[in-house]
Amino acid sequence: MVFNTFTFLVFFAIFFPLYFAAKGTSRHVVLFVGSCIFYMWFIPKYILILFLAIGIDFYAALRIERSSDERNRKYWMLVGVVNTCALLFIFKYYNFFIGNLDALGLHIPFWNIILPLGLSFHTFQSLSYVIDVYRKKVPAEHNLLVYANYVMMFPQIVAGPIERAGEVMPQLHARMADPANASDFTVGMTRFFWGLVKKMVVADNIGPYVTAVYNNYRYHTGTTLLVASMFFSVQIYADFSGYSDMAIGLARALGFRFSENFDLPYFSRSIAELWRRWHISLSSWLRDYLYTPLAFAWRKAGTWGIYASLLVTFAL
After folding, report:
1. Which of 55, 89, 102, 163 is deepest in the core (most CB within 10 A)?
2. Contact at 8 Å (CB) between 57 and 80?
3. pLDDT value for 180
């Protein structure tokens, strides 16, 4: 299920009154069940993959928090990280690597699998949670239902923004006792429909022209290709930022504050600034959990350590 469909509008029209009327733990249950239905609309059995990842990371974080031995804490952190990364590799990159090995003459069978919905996004969220518990930046969540809602909350599960446990978990506890108000709903739905306009009116109408030109680029002039490329820049921004707007708006309607994901990136004054203002939640995630640790570990190499950290980060 995706936001820009009539099916989703029907789903949300049924879900929101139930969510608003529920109190305490029952609101957690409504949010969890609604997120499960939203996720299972694509391929129902893939929810089991998500449950497996949630269960392992939840348990690993508890073991990290309860352990006083540093080696044991690191072991359970690695259990969570390796488990989450393994799921991402198997479902997103296994056939890619097999295809490259096949080109080299190593014939390994392909898997007939379809990429689970939003796998990259809840992978990043799960990784940041386990790592933050290990770093003692956030406490381990002791309520499995709350943690499951952090990973599965339907506004952000498909395309982000990538939220941190330290920001969302307290809101999950607070919202269960203090539901969304009329102001949140008005602001949130206004943001949602603005994102819907960017996605359906702008991106979806530019897309066919760009596709037609790119699929037949040999028959077009340089001017046409230049115009198509400029349109593609508009299309990809309107598509991705529009979806982020819809996610942030839906979360606000439910009483949650999600982080901004785009900050007028095409008004940037440099490439570095563009990356800070484009898909902000991913850029900041890579900075905090990959680039900075690598740069610190390779600090003795000086400038070369910084360059190597940048190359690894951008390669990922």
Report:
1. 163
2. yes
3. 66
